[in-house]
């Protein structure tokens, strides 16, 4: 009887630990896929000390440098983006590489090298697409920006580079098309994935950065010195169906989608005053609920934890050492802080 | 012959010859056996502090190297070195890179825009002597000398006739250095001309930690070429007057080794012109000195970013030996700085007045006091006094024991970049300000044929208004935020023994440094109470030298403890130990002609190491050097 009880308990535990992946295969969740937050730490300029921390809800502290711990070598790059697809995590370094690791244990499975200033990545059509600014010219402009195409989603040499408008950032795949937001030229490029060529480009108001979905609607976030723009994109014909203009000055490209159509956006007065804040904005009508929902300095990234309705704000602590994470509730009150890595800049919640 | 007898005041020292090379009479005059160009006596008003002197013998194993290697491998000092031949900045007593003053023949050569010197472009080929003043010495030297000072000098002798020296170094990773020196001197006039060219492909193997399986690769972007010339001229104008002129031009063309994980292909050119004119007038108890000089620096980064500064100096001082027990030095220095930097232009005038006093209350007690006021562009830097003393409390036939103490205030004026960099420069910055104190014990002992010298120093320093650059949005800007307490210990032992024809000597050094940050730069910063980045707590160095007739050899090793990467002390670079070995042979021919040949193996144990994180250093490497003196 005792043995039977143990068996039942084990089965129950196993069921709890199993989730369905998008392919429908059931695999147990790895240690970095549940019970915590993956924190992207960009690293300090010139130090190549970007890494990933894993904040464990149970321990209420972050495990540092999980890439190095899993692979016995440093990440050795500046971490620009962290993208998950089908059991893999793509660590996009703006120092010229993408590391591919298992989402569960962060063990390396491959890499893409020979990049320049990579910004983001996406897997679609069983290929890996990486947005890259390309090398700087003598005036630190980026005239040779591209999307790198890699045939093997576990990493391989670059098969081809698709030239795109200057400084591509966020990517979104829809209907066999890849949408590319280029911040320098303020364009949205549409790449036909059958031919891996740019089929057309659209002008965008504001400096576009990233795509996001709210409900079934696709938006492109853009901003300039005075306003934030939510450009809604018609997925069927890739046009800007409407633009919600938010009268919010000094916004950055850092934002997080909350519940109830709220969006939290980091604003910064910049030098010399240097006052940062988190503004709360209503996506449905573009109104600013609170321009200074939370104030401080050194705000470098933001995330929203749906289950707890909490806002996670990354503080770079002046890059003097590791950064911190400030957890704020929906009333704008600080709940707690904890230490992350160098230059924390983004979150991936693993409930 | 009369000119060979130089009458000089006690102001003068003979640093290049060592104390054994001159005879000092107790009066106001002294007589030289060998006449040479004189420099200021650095020790005279620095009682209680240690000056470490590296001379030709110490530099001979580093032919063709930069000063970086000498200091890193033969002293207790630590240099933050970004790779072989790359930027190397000195940290003394746990202070930052710009907290030490660097002089060449008495001219301050720290870059006024960067506030520091790159020791990798100070080649030993142009230096005959290095004096390292350990400890705070702002009252003696002016700005920057918070942790100490480094004095580089050339040696100029009279009455030596003609001399030609040709040297070459061949080494691993495509290294080939060449040097040529010609000198001529009679009793009244002396000239020395030297030229050098150093080249290294610098493509040493390293482990690429950023790639899967961490393959061993060749360094792709590290080629270094450095060349320059140096002209020394000196005249004994009369028995009371001497003139010394020196001109040094050095240029370095470097590919900048990228940090592991980056594929940058940066390049940097540095051009430095330094020239000085030194006039000495001896008059009874007084020695007058007038010095004029220029230091032109040009740094070009990736062709487009051109940074130029010009410094013009004029200084004068009077050193007077009032009697056997008292002397003083009073002087001024005017500096005009012009800068045409990549993002701004700036000018600055500096003037400084100083006074030093030395008193010997008893033959065994020396006390010194120094005062200096420095003004830059109408801003008064902290008034800097210092005091020091040496008490020789035990003197027997075979042993001498002395106790030293010193206390000093020092400062560093904000650099031009700190104040004017566009955008971000902060014109309201205050000078960095420090107080320090130290005590030391020195022993000289001869026993059983061993000649032993030991020196132990304990120090503590408080540095306030420490400037750090912080991000203010996309722009970084400097602020007087940090305050640091530095404390530590320096121990140095030298043991010499002659056994028949074999001459053995051993130098051992241990430095312990705690540089503890006292402030947080922001609300969530966790820097307080931690060791400063890239400041190893421990460094141990030992060198064993052996000489027998024409043969000599050395075995040298140093160990450096872990270095934290940032102020929160979370990430560190592993400790490392290096062993170097070398052999030399000197062959004399045609009476006065000499051939020196040497073979060195550096990093004998082929250790993989980084001085700074992800900045690899070479494994085992070899070099052969040969110098012919005609």
Automatic annotation (TrEMBL), chain A:
Keywords: Signal. It holds the Pfam family DUF5074. InterPro entries: DUF5074 (IPR031815), Haem_d1_sf (IPR011048), Host-pathogen_enzymatic-act (IPR051200), WD40/YVTN_repeat-like_dom_sf (IPR015943). Residues 1-24 form the signal peptide. PANTHER family: DIHYDRO-HEME D1 DEHYDROGENASE, PROTEIN NIRF. This is 40-residue YVTN family beta-propeller repeat-containing protein. It comes from Mongoliitalea lutea. The lineage of its organism: Bacteria, Pseudomonadati, Bacteroidota, Cytophagia, Cytophagales.
């Amino acid at each position: 009887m005792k043995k039977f009880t143990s068996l039942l308990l084990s089965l129950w535990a196993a069921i709890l630990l199993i989730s369905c992946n998008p392919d429908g295969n059931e695999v147990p969740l790895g240690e970095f896929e549940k019970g915590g937050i993956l924190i992207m730490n960009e690293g300090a300029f010139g130090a190549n000390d970007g890494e990933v921390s894993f904040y464990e809800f149970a321990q209420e502290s972050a495990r540092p440098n999980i890439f190095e711990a899993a692979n016995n070598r440093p990440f050795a790059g500046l971490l620009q983006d962290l993208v998950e697809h089908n059991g893999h995590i793509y660590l996009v370094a703006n120092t010229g590489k993408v590391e591919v690791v298992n989402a569960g244990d962060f063990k390396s499975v491959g890499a893409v090298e020979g990049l320049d200033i990579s910004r983001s990545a996406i897997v679609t059509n069983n290929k890996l697409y990486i947005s890259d600014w390309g090398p700087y010219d003598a005036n630190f402009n980026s005239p040779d920006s591209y999307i790198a195409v890699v045939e093997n989603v576990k990493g391989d040499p670059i098969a081809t580079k698709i030239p795109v408008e200057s400084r591509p950032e966020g990517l979104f795949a829809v209907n066999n098309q890849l949408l590319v937001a280029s911040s320098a030229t303020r364009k949205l490029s549409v790449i036909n994935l059958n031919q891996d060529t740019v089929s057309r480009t659209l002008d965008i108001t504001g400096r576009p950065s990233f795509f996001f979905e709210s409900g079934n609607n696709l938006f492109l976030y853009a901003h300039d010195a005075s306003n934030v723009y939510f450009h809604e994109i018609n997925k069927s014909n890739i046009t800007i169906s409407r633009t919600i203009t938010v009268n919010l000055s000094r916004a950055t490209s850092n934002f997080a989608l909350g519940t109830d159509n709220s969006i939290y956006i980091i604003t910064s007065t910049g030098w010399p005053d240097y006052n940062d804040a988190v503004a709360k904005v209503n996506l449905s009508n573009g109104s600013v609920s609170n321009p200074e929902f939370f104030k401080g300095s050194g705000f470098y990234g933001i995330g929203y934890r749906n289950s707890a309705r909490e806002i996670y704000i990354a503080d770079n602590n002046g890059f003097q050492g590791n950064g911190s994470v400030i957890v704020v509730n929906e009333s704008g009150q600080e709940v707690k802080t904890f230490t992350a890595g160098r230059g924390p800049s983004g979150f991936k919640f693993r409930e | 012959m009369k000119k060979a007898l130089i009458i000089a005041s006690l102001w003068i020292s003979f640093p290049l010859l060592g104390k054994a090379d001159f005879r000092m009479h107790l009066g106001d005059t002294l007589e030289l056996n060998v006449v040479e160009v004189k420099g200021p006596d650095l020790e005279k008003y620095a009682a209680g502090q240690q000056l470490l002197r590296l001379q030709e013998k110490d530099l001979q194993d580093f032919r063709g190297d930069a000063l970086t290697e000498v200091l890193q491998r033969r002293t207790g000092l630590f240099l933050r070195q970004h790779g072989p031949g790359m930027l190397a900045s000195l940290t003394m007593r746990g202070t930052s890179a710009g907290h030490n003053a660097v002089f060449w023949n008495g001219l301050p050569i720290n870059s006024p825009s960067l506030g520091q010197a790159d020791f990798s472009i100070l080649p030993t080929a142009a230096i005959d002597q290095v004096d390292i003043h350990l400890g705070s010495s702002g009252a003696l030297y002016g700005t920057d000398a918070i942790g100490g000072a480094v004095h580089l000098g050339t040696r100029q002798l009279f009455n030596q006739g003609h001399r030609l020296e040709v040297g070459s170094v061949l080494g691993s990773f495509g290294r080939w250095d060449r040097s040529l020196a010609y000198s001529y001197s009679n009793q009244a006039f002396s000239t020395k001309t030297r030229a050098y060219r150093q080249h290294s492909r610098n493509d040493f193997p390293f482990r690429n930690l950023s790639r899967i399986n961490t393959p061993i690769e060749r360094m792709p972007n590290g080629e270094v070429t450095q060349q320059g010339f140096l002209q020394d001229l000196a005249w004994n104008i009369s028995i009371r007057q001497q003139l010394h002129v020196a001109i040094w031009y050095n240029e370095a063309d470097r590919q900048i080794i990228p940090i592991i994980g980056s594929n940058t292909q940066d390049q940097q050119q540095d051009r430095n012109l330094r020239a000085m004119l030194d006039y000495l007038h001896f008059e009874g108890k007084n020695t007058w000195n007038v010095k004029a000089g220029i230091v032109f620096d040009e740094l070009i980064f990736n062709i487009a970013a051109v940074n130029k500064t010009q410094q013009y100096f004029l200084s004068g001082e009077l050193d007077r030996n009032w009697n056997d027990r008292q002397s003083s030095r009073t002087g001024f220095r005017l500096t005009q700085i012009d800068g045409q930097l990549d993002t701004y232009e700036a000018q600055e005038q500096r003037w400084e007045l100083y006074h030093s006093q030395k008193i010997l209350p008893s033959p065994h007690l020396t006390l010194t006091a120094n005062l200096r006021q420095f003004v830059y562009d109408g801003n008064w830097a902290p008034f800097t006094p210092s005091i020091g003393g040496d008490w020789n409390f035990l003197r027997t036939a075979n042993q001498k024991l002395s106790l030293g103490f010193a206390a000093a205030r020092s400062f560093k004026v904000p650099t031009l970049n700190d104040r004017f960099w566009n955008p971000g420069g902060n014109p309201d910055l205050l000078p960095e300000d420090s107080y320090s104190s130290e005590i030391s014990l020195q022993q000289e002992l001869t026993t059983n044929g061993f000649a032993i010298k030991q020196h132990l120093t304990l120090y503590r320093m408080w540095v306030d208004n420490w400037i750090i650059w912080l991000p203010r949005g996309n722009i970084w800007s400097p602020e007087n935020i940090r305050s640091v307490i530095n404390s530590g210990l320096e121990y140095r032992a030298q043991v010499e023994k002659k056994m028949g024809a074999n001459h053995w000597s051993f130098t051992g050094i241990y430095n312990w440094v705690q540089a503890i940050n006292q402030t947080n730069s922001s609300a969530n910063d966790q820097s307080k109470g931690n060791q400063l980045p890239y400041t190893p707590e421990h460094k141990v160095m030992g060198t064993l030298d052996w000489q027998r007739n024409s043969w000599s050899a050395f075995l040298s090793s140093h160990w450096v403890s872990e270095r934290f990467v940032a102020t929160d002390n979370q990430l560190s670079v592993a400790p490392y130990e290096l062993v170097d070995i070398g052999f030399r042979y000197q062959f004399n021919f045609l009476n006065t002609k000499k051939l020196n040949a040497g073979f060195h193996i550096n990093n004998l144990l082929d250790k993989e190491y980084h001085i700074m994180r992800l900045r690899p250093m070479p494994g085992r490497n070899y070099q052969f050097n040969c110098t012919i003196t005609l």
